[in-house]
Write a structure and sequence with these properties.
By secondary structure, the chain is α/β, with parallel strands linked by helices. Helices cover about 35% and strands about 25% of the residues. Keywords: Methyltransferase, Transferase.
Length: about 260
């Protein structure tokens, strides 16, 4: 996740940001996108939100290493009530967050709308897990989608949330003329990207990992199938023309 950047992963959102904006970045993760956004608002700030202090500690690292100081770090939960007043932020950003939430996505978007200023913009990007494709085709690689989809569903999340963003935004109170939805792919096809993705997928399912445990205990794949998946990832990296793609939904909504 620390490989993500605003230029690549929030390109749809950046044109709507102004230098004075106060941006709320919900589910900021390792903070790489957050720090990029902070650099775009030199007269403003970015407030990073995570559900636990331990997660916020990781988010501080890119700010510190880049000497970016216009940031705040707050523990909060968008599924209940964020610790901010109404109409507090010029923009709210979320990247692969709503799909993992253990609640109706509409609840989260209503809370986001509450803390957004009049005229402010929400940018939200969510995956459509069912669009996952690998080439060359290898059935052993299906464990990736099965394991992650199963874990998300067990947590009450929505693995295909990218398709439902417009519906959720309209139901949460945004008007039709205030909502714009599009889509963009993640694609790993050049040599460096293929090596990175194959290694990272294998790493996420290694012995002792949370995702491996949830995949096996949830009955989404056997331990042997997970082991076969790890080997398939390493095999895939070396194949001629290796390619991976998945579609993401993108939401822009104004209050």
């Amino acid at each position: 996740h620390s490989r993500r950047t605003a230029a690549r992963d929030a390109a749809y959102f950046i044109p709507h940001i102004k230098p004075h904006f106060h941006i709320l970045d919900i589910g900021c993760g390792p903070g790489t996108i957050s720090a990029d956004l902070a650099a775009l608002v030199p007269q403003g700030r970015v407030t990073c939100v995570e559900i636990a202090e331990s997660a916020l500690n990781a988010a501080r690292d890119p700010f510190s290493s880049r000497s970016v100081t216009n940031a705040d770090y707050v523990v909060g939960d968008v599924t209940t009530r964020l610790p901010f007043e109404d109409d507090s932020f010029d923009a709210v950003h979320l990247h692969m967050v709503i799909m993992h939430l253990p609640c109706d996505p509409i609840i989260a978007l209503r809370e986001i709308r509450r803390v957004l200023k009049e005229g402010g913009v929400v940018g939200c990007k969510e995956m459509v897990m069912s669009t996952t494709r690998w080439f060359p085709v290898d059935k052993r690689l299906d464990v990736w989608e099965k394991g992650i989809t199963g874990a998300i569903l067990e947590s009450g999340g929505s693995p295909d949330m990218g398709m439902g963003l417009k519906y959720a935004a309209l139901t949460a109170g945004f008007e039709d003329h205030q909502v714009k939805c599009a889509a963009s792919p993640w694609c790993f096809s050049d040599t460096e990207a293929v090596q990175f993705f194959g290694d990272s997928c294998a790493e996420r399912f290694k012995d002792g990992s949370e995702l491996r445990e949830r995949t096996v205990k949830g009955g989404h794949a056997t331990a042997d199938e997970v082991d076969d998946f790890i080997q398939a990832c390493h095999d895939w990296k070396e194949k001629k023309g290796a390619w991976f793609g998945v579609m993401n939904g993108e939401l822009l909504a104004w209050k």
